[in-house]
Give the backbone structure.
Amino acid sequence: MNELDAAAHAAALGHSITRFHPMANEAPLSCKACGGGDIQIFYRVKSVPAHSCLMMSSRDEALAFPRGDIELGFCRACGFIGNVRFDPALERYSAAYEETQAYSPRFLKFLDEVWDDQIDRFGLGPGMTALEIGCGKGEFLVGLCERSGCAGIGIDPGYRPERTRSSATQRMSFIRDLYGPQYAHLQAEYVCCRHTLEHIAPVFDFVRLVRETLGERRHVNVYFELPDMERVLQQGAFWDIYYEHCTYFTRGSLARLFRSAGFDVRRLYKVYDDQYLMLEAEPAAAPTGPTLPEEDDLAWVTSLVDRFEQQVNDRVRSLSETIAAHRAAGHRLAIWGSGSKCVSLISSLGLACGNDAEPAIVDINPHKHGKFLAGSGLQIVGPDALGQIRPDVVLIMNSIYTEEIRDELAARGLEPHLIPL
Ligand SMILES: [Zn+2]
């Protein structure tokens, strides 16, 4: 494919990544992090499933799932990136939301490291309370309480009480709700929020709410964990951009947000092959100024945003060519990992073609088996089904799982060609 064809291909798939100015009759865009008005639209995808982790029990339901548009806006003043077309009315978080990665040994090892590090760093132990905002199914909080002996409070509308089996449950409580000012009375020495901020559009209002609910309790340690956008921009990893994630941060933009909302940022770092961004902060009396060298990334991130269109075009072209070549050779394709990245990749590359060439979708989370992917309606199978399907090629949605997936395949006598993303 030459460059023109690639651009046409990208456009046909809904990618249109030109600099965009709002029409005269549209309200000017303003940054949800700093309030600034210099917003550059640099990436667009039309009509993607509004949720990609909600499990659909029928193909029809999955195909009819509500869709929304993505237009990523970059604030040239603070570096914040958000989907300016995000419509909160399409949000449907519920107990059918399957976000957990706790079935992967590699992920559990990572959780081990985070638990040990956080308990050690903040001296969590008996007599203390950890509060987790957006606790999902509660596995992080449970592990924290089990290992440290502290008490725990988890808040999440998607929490499922029947999934928690732990000796620590008698000192834990869960609230099935979104976090809000009504929870300001909850006392904790440690507040964490993992993989939640990227689902929240009014980011300043949210971080400010967290700060306000802490009030004068300046000793509270605050820990946030979320996907890192710097890596996505650098690698043109378009499958990491999806509707559920309405906001995207790099180290600098995250620190600037917390500082402006009245926190002092103490530590800012990346983990998990640089896929996740971690921030540790303490409440301050007023907005604070930058102190860490890694906060100073605005010029660099601006250059990455300006190059992103080309990066994505290159990625779409090369993946499309690879998949087309395997299909032409009659190879059976499977995609390992049925989460949001998979839904995004399928819709971006048009892989749900309605015929025999459709990829098999594999996931190790047993709660997903037999369910259908929003948007494409493809059904999710467990690794055991691969013995029958016998894929020739397996696309791995997150390269960090390559070795464990290779082992799972080998255990079933399979040695397909692996393409880790
Ligand atoms: Zn901004």
